[in-house]
Amino acid sequence: MRLISPETAPKFQLIDSHGRVVRLDSGKRTLLAFFRDTNCPFCNFRIFQLTQHYKKLSDEGLEIIAFFSSTHEEVNEFVRKRPRPFTIVADPENIAYQAYGIERSMARSAYSVFRHFVSWVLGIKIIGAEGLKKNLQNPSDIMPADFLIDEQGYIIETYYGSDASDHIPFENIYEFLNADQNPKKSTTPRV
């Protein structure tokens, strides 16, 4: 079931790619970004984009936590090959995915390749032939989602992807960082 802002963000406790406990802490503005798996071309392209924006987002006080439904071993290998400046968490049991109402759809997943072919190709360039082979052998039906959470632990914006490449626009993230954060502020969830 989709979460709606402004409600309190569900708590979680998982282990990141460096073996550290990760939990949602109050007092920090946070972007939770839910991805499919480490061999997803769309996911890799979005991780690349987040990395490009990271310095500015971090300087403005945003913490980024990226989740993959992949195993700890797959996430550790992903981070070893492509280190990232933000937290990356393996959630193979989908604990956080369930708490945040992450959706699944094989039809919307397949549709993404046709709708966002250029992003798919750019993602393939990142993961390479071996990554694409693994992705095609084990396709995912997980749809991406993003959540902007304020310092008090309220979800300010929910963004459930309409397809496998659909993430919250960077304009929304910067608007969140530059807006007066009022936890009682009502925002319309993306449907």
Biggest beta sheet summary: 5 strands, mixed
Rg over CA atoms: 16 Å
Strand order, largest beta sheet: 5-4-3-6-7
Low-confidence stretches: 181-191
User: What structural class do helix, strand and pairing data support?
Assistant: alpha/beta
Q: How helix-rich are the residues, as a percent range? A: 25-40%
Shape: globular
Task: Report how far apart the termini are.
Answer: 12 Å
CATH architecture type: 3-Layer(aba) Sandwich
CATH topology: Glutaredoxin
Task: Name the CATH homologous superfamily.
Answer: Glutaredoxin
Number of strands: 7
- Name of the CATH class: Alpha Beta
What's the tally of helices?
Answer: 6
pLDDT averaged residue by residue: 84
Order of helical and strand elements: EEEHEHEHHHEEH
Count of distinct structural domains: 1
Q: Give the oligomer, counting copies of the same chain as homo and different chains as hetero.
A: single chain
Assess the beta-strand content as a share of residues: 15-25%
InterPro entries: AhpC/TSA, Thioredoxin-like_sf, Thioredoxin_domain, Thioredoxin_ResA/DsbE_sf
Domain Thioredoxin: 3-182
Protein name: Thioredoxin domain-containing protein
Organism: Acinetobacter tjernbergiae DSM 14971 = CIP 107465
Could you explain the architecture of this structure?
- By secondary structure, the protein is an alpha/beta fold.
- The chain has a single domain, classed as 3-Layer(aba) Sandwich (Glutaredoxin), CATH 3.40.30.10.
- 39% of the residues lie in helices and 18% in strands.
- It has six helices and seven strands; from the N terminus they run βββαβαβαααββα.
- The strands form two sheets. Strands 5-4-3-6-7 form a five-stranded mixed β-sheet. Strands 1-2 form a two-stranded antiparallel sheet.
- Helix 1 crosses helix 5.
- This is Thioredoxin domain-containing protein.
- Pfam families: AhpC-TSA.
